[in-house]
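USER: Fancy drafting a protein?

ASSISTANT:
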Amino acid sequence: MSVRIIAVIFLALQMLCASCVPTPTAPAGEIKALREGGIFVLCEGLWRQDNAVLSYINADNSVVRDVVGTYNPNTKLGDIATDMVSMSDTLVIAVNTSRSLCLVRKTDGKWLGRIATPGVKQPFHLALASNGKLYCTNINDDSITEYDAATMEVTVPTVKVGPAPEGITVLGKKIYVANSGYGDLRKDEEGAGTIQVLSQQDLSTLSVIGDLPNVGVVRSDEARKFVWATFRHFASEPDSLGGVVLIDGRTDVVMNLWRIKSPLDITIDTLSGNAYVMHAAGVDVLDPQTLATTRIISHQSGAGSDIWYSIGFDHDRRLILIGNARSYVTDGEVIVADLLGTIISRYPVGPNPISFTR
């Protein structure tokens, strides 16, 4: 999904890193059940370092840095973790270079198993559908895979899509796949810079939404039948702007486009319908009704060792969650802010926090 780990420059930087600097792991007794209000944080780790972790922020503000290692000695997620979804009491975690999906029980952190992806597929982003299916983009072979969410058995191993599929989301009976084209690397290939819309019924292509160069993240708002997507400038065009588009999920027509410098991630407040986008200069809130854009946090990533990496939303408490990668090679943190952008707390987690869920 995402330029967060797939952009060539970033991968090159990761290859130079020999180790990470961990923070102490909290004692096993500190983790609480999900019902008690904790937040799981997936931390990507560093490429080829085998140090991805699942962190947990407790309702009492304590943190378990590595849930899997704490409750399952000598067990690791792998290299590198790129996305997770919550299914009842189970987390499904995509581990890209390790070519697998990992299952972890949420109530006690118990390791439930590792499922190898078909062939040499490298899973990237995940989307859970109401029809009992789980969909996964495979960024290395331009495909998605369909799983039975109840059994985690592969039901359709390969559905070909466009070049370098990153983000994926489900809205109604449709699947939206962001075909980035790996930025400059494959931008001239057919299907690069598009969102491909598939039917859940037979996985056929219903439509293609084009003119979205280096498209990365897609998020859906079921209540309003909206799909949001971010697209980024190319490294060869440093002065160009990326942006965010709002798509009508009924017609698959772009309703509005906001030009934004280097949008990295986006999250949706499903109560208000507002979108919060993280970009080169901070965090903006986009209102789909008025089309207004409001800067709520100003932040220049890359200044020193403070690099904002991901954004999520705590729907229970209606708070913004920001993943700070710091310098990529050290442990990161989660910054919690209110809807006005006021930072109210910070929590140490593993390296490169990338995804959040309860």
